[in-house]
Amino acid sequence: MKPQLLNSWMPYLQDEFEKTYFQALNEFVEKEYYEAECFPPKDQIFNAFNHCAFENVKVVIIGQDPYHDQGQANGLCFSVNDGIKHPPSLVNIFKEIETDLEVAYPESGNLERWADQGVLLLNATLTVRAHQAGSHQKKGWETFTDVVIKTISDYKDNVVFLLWGGYAKKKVKLIDSKKHHVLISGHPSPLSANRGYWFGNKHFSKTNEILRELGKEVITW
C-alpha cells in the first residue's frame, strides 16, 4: 500500500509513513487485501485527502469505519458510490439537510461533491474486510488519523469540526477549540437518531453560518 495523497498533505504527513507503526499497518493492509476482499478499493483508500487539499480544508467530518458491503465504500466517510442504495446513517444525514436547509433529498449518495468544496470526510479507520465491521480497527489507522486531526488543528485556523456520536466526540481532545469551531451531536445512525440525538442539530446551516461570518464560501450540501 503506497500512500497516494495530494502533494499538499505530504509536508505534514510524510514522516508518519516512515514510522514503525505505519510500516506494520502497511504490511497488515497488504496481507488483508491479498487474502480477502477488502474495502474501499486499494486506489481509493486515501480518497478523502485526494478530493480535499490541505489548504482547502474548511470542514472536517469524522466517521469510524468504511462501509463493508459490496460497492459501497469510496474512501470518504458516510459516502457511497453513485447508484448505490443509501445506508441508514446517510439517509438520516440527507433528511436533516432536507429540513435544515429546505433542499431536496439528493439522488446520489456520493459525497465527493462535498469533499471537492473543502469538507474532509475522514474515517478513523481507512480500510475494512468485506462484511466484517471493525475488522481493521486497532491496527494503526487510528494513530495515523489522530495525527491528521491534530495536524489540521495545529496548522490551520477556523476549521469547523463536526463530531457526531460518542466515538467522534472523543476526538475533541485533539482539537484546539480556541481557534476552531466544534459542533457536537448524536450520531446519524437510526439507533441514535430515533432517540432524538440527531435530528434538529442544524449542523449544516450552522456550519455555513460560521463560514459566512469568516468570509469563506459556504458549502453546497
UniProtKB/TrEMBL annotation:
Its EC number is 3.2.2.27. InterPro entries: UDG_fam1, Ura-DNA_Glyclase_AS, Uracil-DNA_glycosylase-like, Uracil-DNA_glycosylase-like_sf. It catalyses: Hydrolyzes single-stranded DNA or mismatched double-stranded DNA and polynucleotides, releasing free uracil. CDD domains: UDG-F1-like. SMART domains: UDG, UreE_C. Residues 50-211 form the Uracil-DNA glycosylase-like domain. GO terms for molecular function: uracil DNA N-glycosylase activity. The keyword DNA repair applies. The active site is at D65. Keywords: Cytoplasm, DNA damage, DNA repair, Glycosidase, Hydrolase. Belongs to the uracil-DNA glycosylase (UDG) superfamily. UNG family. This is Uracil-DNA glycosylase. It comes from Aestuariibaculum lutulentum. The lineage of its organism: Bacteria, Pseudomonadati, Bacteroidota, Flavobacteriia, Flavobacteriales.
